[in-house]
Amino acid sequence: MHHSQINADVRKLIADGTVLPAHPLALTAERKLDKTHQRALTRYYIDAGAGGLAVGVHTTQFAIRDVGLYRPVLELAAETAASWTRRPLAMVAGLAGPTRQATTEARTARDIGYHAGLLSLAAMKSASEDEIIAHCTAVAAEIPLVGFYLQPAVGGVILSSQFWQRFASIDNVIAIKIAPFNRYRTLDVLRGVAAAGALDRVALYTGNDDHILLDLMLPFDLRDNGVTTRTYFKGGLLGHWSVWTASAIGQFERCKAARHKDSVPADLLALDARVTDCNSAFFDVANNFHGCIAGCHEILRRQGLMQGLWCLDPAEGLSPGQKEEIDRVCREHADLSDDDFVAANLSKWLA
């Protein structure tokens, strides 16, 4: 599948930039798929105004592949979305593993109806950049790709600006999620895409949870041989946006409106730090992100969108002190939540 085959409205949605929450996995106490709450989550993101969904990604738990849930979870999200709304949605499937696995997953996602694949390179840690480019090219032959610069703390591979130039030169790459949580490496990606002459084709999406709003509103000037090219992040694909999503979409729209202006409101700039503070609790920064999935589950549990915090790996859960940190940010930043929105619609989503 080539990107030219994507529905025109969906292709424009991705290119212009949108909110793509990373879809969590709802489980029962027996650690089995909880279809009722999984559907409710999908409906929640759609009604909150998300432009699409990222399913089978880190927030969905990579271990779904080990227990036979990869296809069922992707199918359930696609079927729920199609029956819940008629507006265009960008459906992005997480792709992982070595080349054979990643290409198989790409074909699975394509056959279900997903528009693109978010390609994790965590399995390529010992590979050279030449080998990783060959891997990406093979997967791109199956489905349009969203690149993924994942932070090393959770399995990411450090890659050069030259790598991102070569990656952006692959014709079937349509976007890159930039999530190294590192300003230097973020600039490496931007410089690489610019050097490939691909800024018009490859949409830049932030996954930098420590700089979400600043990434979305500020210009980036890239210099080459005395020539300046100004570019912007177009949207975000974030595990952080799996919670308080309605509020996040409002923040995204404010950031979009602030772009291309001579000045940015100080209150909007300051809001970035408050969002980052919330993320520090949700993603368990104090414990090197060990509880990042369970932290998002805790917010969704409190709202009634999940029954519990259960992860496929029994060892995954809240870290010591994380619940207290979540209590703190929920208290100090209560105005950033979407609790009222969820409470007003929860029974409908669970039906």
Describe this structure in words.
This protein has 351 residues and is an alpha/beta fold. The protein has one domain (3-259): Aldolase class I (TIM Barrel), CATH 3.20.20.70. 45% of the residues lie in helices and 14% in strands. It has helices spanning 8-16, 35-48, 70-84, 99-112, 129-140, 161-168, 183-195, 212-217, 245-258, 266-282, 292-303, 322-332, 339-350; strands spanning 19-21, 52-55, 90-95, 116-119, 145-150, 173-179, 203-206, 220-224, 227-231, 235-238. The chain has an eight-stranded parallel sheet with strand order 1-10-7-6-5-4-3-2. It has a two-stranded antiparallel sheet with strand order 8-9. The radius of gyration is 19 Å and the shape is globular. The mean pLDDT is 96. One of its GO terms (molecular function) is 4-hydroxy-tetrahydrodipicolinate synthase activity.
What are its keywords?
351 residues, alpha/beta, TIM Barrel, eight-stranded parallel beta sheet, two-stranded antiparallel ribbon, globular
